Amino acid sequence: MATIRDIAKLAGVSPATVSRVLNYDQELSVAQETKQRIFEVAEKLNYTKHKRVNKSGKAVIRLVQWYDEAEELADLYYLSIRLGIEKKAEELHIDIQRETLAELSDSQVSGTIALGKFDAKQIRQLRQYEENLLLVDFDGMKMGIDSLVVDFDQSMDLVIDHFIQHGHKKIGILSGKEKTKHNLQPIEDPRLAVFKQKMEQLNLYRPEFTLTAAFSMEAGKKTMAHFLADRSELPDALFASSDALAVGAMQAIQEAGLQIPADISVIGFNDVSVAKYVSPALSTIKVETEWMGELAVSTIVDLAKEFSPAPRKIMLGTKLIERDSTQ
Question: Which of 50, 221, 263, 280 has its CA 20 to 30 A from that of 180?
């Protein structure tokens, strides 16, 4: 595991600055560019696998993202996937052409990777520019689009089984809420639907322990603080739909005078670099985001080489990383 000093050296800042940025210290005044550099270095230092370089011919892949750089810093999930895409493309000597939905070009490319959440209108817009289209982190199978997604059913089994094995029955969830850009169509958090279904099957679902917030540390902290102030009965375990939400929730729990994990155990989702450095270190569901980005590039290259008669959906499994925030 990379240390804070390793990150500080490569980012050109002090270890103290790195520590405060990775712990989302809101009192720290530092430039957005510096934050971006620190987070990117932290993510890149997790990339330890040796890769063989494919020396095939030059190609160009279009990358369309729904998150801008500022939004990536609020939740590092998409930042990590993008870095994986760029890393794999570099190894294969492929150029990445980053574009926005508002400014799609007519340039000839081998394919388009659309990273994030898109509504039906936006997907139709993407298909007008490129038939070889891969959606990453969004299931477009209903529209006949090749998709690369996380297996949320398996992920929630890991969370619920872990909590129950450790004696927890009052289990809450802090789910995420978001909307598509421009058309502002609400997007349901798939983790919430799966969590509710599985908890109801176990006769353990408590609707009063279901919270929702935007996917950011600040929103997670605010929502959790309001919940703690208004409730006499509290869950003894909490799952958060992203590490950013989990970090915010942990800050609110600690500021309320409660102990983690003695009073409330917490599990996040994604295992971005920040999860290792917060206090207590965050237990989380690890999504292989770097590999997800790499697999997106490999898949779009394969789709460009050979026509596929039917859309495919690739589902990535996850694993639970136990740290200090769970008993």
Answer: 221
